[in-house]
Amino acid sequence: MIYDYFEIPKVSRQGLSGLCDRFTNEIGEYYKATEIYFDASRSMIRHEEIINKK
């Protein structure tokens, strides 16, 4: 999805930065930054809810 949406050639690393997923990527034709941040807090909250139900 990231490759198609942002039209970047390659993601070289993925990691967490606080509550965000951080992707380090090569510069694409249209997306000129080398990092993309996504808010991962909802996913983390949902994961915790699932774990706590068990």
Structural class: alpha+beta
Strand order of the largest sheet: 1-2-3
H-E order: HEEEH
Could you tell me the radius of gyration in angstroms?
Answer: 14 Å
Residues in helix, %: 25-40%
Assign an overall shape: elongated
Main beta sheet: 3 strands, antiparallel
How far apart lie the N and C ends? 31 Å
Count of helical regions: 2
Secondary structure tally: strands = 3
Please indicate the percent range of residues in DSSP E strands (runs of 2 or more): 25-35%
Contiguous uncertain segments of 5+ residues: none
Mean pLDDT value:
87
Any overview of this molecule?
This protein has helices at 2-6, 41-53, and strands at 11-17, 20-25, 35-39. With 54 residues, it is of the alpha+beta class. Strands 1-2-3 form a three-stranded antiparallel beta sheet, with no helix packed on it. Strand 1 and strand 2 (20-25) form a beta hairpin. The mean pLDDT is 87.
Quick structural gist:
By secondary structure, the protein is of the alpha+beta class. It has helices at 2-6, 41-53; strands spanning 11-17, 20-25, 35-39.
Structural key phrases:
54 residues, 2 helices, elongated
Helix and strand layout, with pairings?
Layout: H1 2-6, E1 11-17, E2 20-25, E3 35-39, H2 41-53
Antiparallel strand pairs: 1-2, 2-3
